[in-house]
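Renewal narrative, Specific Aim 1. Our central claim is that a sequence can be written position by position from structural information alone. The example that follows is taken directly from our test logs and has not been curated for this report. It begins with the structure tokens describing the chain, in the order in which they were read.
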């Protein structure tokens, strides 16, 4: 076929919105005097061309809309429907922006965890067409290979597992890694105790791995919940191969700061959430701790909404409900950690202890309070950083 005949065939066989893109590709190919592709004039294959051999363009309107959003968020000229968001350079902040753009442009909402479960345009399009997805705390971060024992990482205080995406990637593609997210991020009732969370997450964990040995871990509050999960597993006769406490400390070990020690529990939660969320937005809040403490929840959430809108991370339609759900989870997790009283664990544990942290009085011990609770031996590694 000559180029004009090929265009005519494409026009008949492709959806209308794809034809101009196909023409651009065809017109860019070097042709000889007979109108055929001049193979000798084609450039040598390079890494980029090898990586795009399996490139699949959007195949319907929804996939095209998603591709355009990804291109804008990731700053890419084109995106295939089977490329992973994270392999294309996406990270947690860009994930939030992408989902905000999805809500703003298409009026469609998805929880952050879905992006880990379905990280391609093809999979996201299927998820958006399916409204019957059952909720589960399990979030696959790395699928891994059959025959490899998985690692389960429990959420920190914010409730989501975005913080573990890079860790899961660096542990290698063969190791299955699952995150365990908080109930309530999608507006469901929150779990209000560490014991309830541990039982809930163990039920989900057993759906993937019915019996041990188990590998568990968690950062901050996640380490506390993982400790309780490991204790329950050992008490039921199961084996725990690894319990990794990532800079987690026992409840009550870190005294409240002078500014927050005199505040009510609700005010402390309000201040802590506002600061943590503003930091995630990459912003400094234009309000003091005192002003946040003496205001109310609605005023604090309104302030965060304005910052989220200004940085294009939130949108005006779904932003208020999203912030409210995040705050409910954060507050419930904070209170759950404060009232949890850990009991001794007869297994061993690995503690990764950050070497840099704000000075406290008395100083925080290197073992973060776990030494007397971990009866099978506590191995501590100091890790540079905060």
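The sequence written for that structure reads:
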């Amino acid at each position: 076929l000559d180029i004009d005949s090929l265009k005519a065939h494409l026009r008949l066989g492709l959806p209308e919105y794809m034809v101009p893109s196909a023409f651009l590709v065809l017109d860019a190919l070097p042709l000889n005097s007979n109108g055929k592709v001049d193979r000798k004039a084609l450039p040598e294959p390079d890494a980029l061309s090898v990586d795009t051999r399996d490139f699949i363009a959007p195949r319907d309107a929804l996939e095209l809309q998603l591709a355009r959003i990804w291109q804008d968020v990731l700053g890419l000229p084109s995106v295939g429907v089977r490329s992973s968001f994270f392999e294309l350079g996406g990270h947690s902040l860009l994930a939030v922006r992408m989902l905000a753009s999805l809500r703003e442009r298409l009026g469609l909402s998805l929880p952050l965890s879905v992006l880990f479960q379905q990280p391609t345009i093809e999979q996201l399009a299927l998820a958006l067409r399916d409204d019957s997805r059952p909720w589960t705390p399990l979030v696959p971060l790395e699928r891994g290979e059959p025959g490899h024992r998985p690692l389960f990482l429990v959420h920190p205080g914010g409730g989501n597992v975005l913080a573990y995406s890079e860790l899961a990637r660096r542990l290698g593609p063969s190791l299955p890694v699952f995150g365990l997210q908080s109930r309530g991020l999608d507006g469901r009732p929150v779990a209000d105790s560490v014991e309830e969370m541990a039982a809930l997450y163990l039920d989900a964990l057993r759906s993937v791995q019915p019996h041990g040995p188990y590998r568990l871990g968690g950062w901050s509050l996640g380490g506390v919940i993982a400790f309780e999960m490991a204790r329950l597993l050992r008490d039921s006769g199961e084996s725990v191969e690894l319990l990794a406490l990532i800079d987690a400390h026992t409840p009550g070990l870190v005294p409240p700061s002078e500014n927050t020690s005199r505040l009510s529990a609700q005010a402390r939660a309000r201040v802590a959430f506002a600061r943590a969320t503003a930091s995630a937005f990459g912003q400094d809040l234009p309000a003091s701790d005192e002003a946040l403490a003496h205001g109310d929840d609605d005023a604090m959430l309104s302030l965060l909404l304005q910052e989220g809108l200004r940085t294009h991370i939130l949108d005006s339609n779904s932003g208020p409900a999203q912030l409210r759900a995040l705050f409910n989870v954060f507050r419930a997790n904070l209170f759950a950690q404060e009232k949890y009283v850990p009991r001794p664990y007869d297994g061993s544990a690995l503690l990764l202890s950050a070497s840099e942290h704000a000075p406290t009085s008395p100083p925080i011990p290197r073992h973060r309070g776990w030494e007397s609770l971990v009866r099978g031996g506590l191995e501590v590694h100091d890790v540079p950083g905060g």
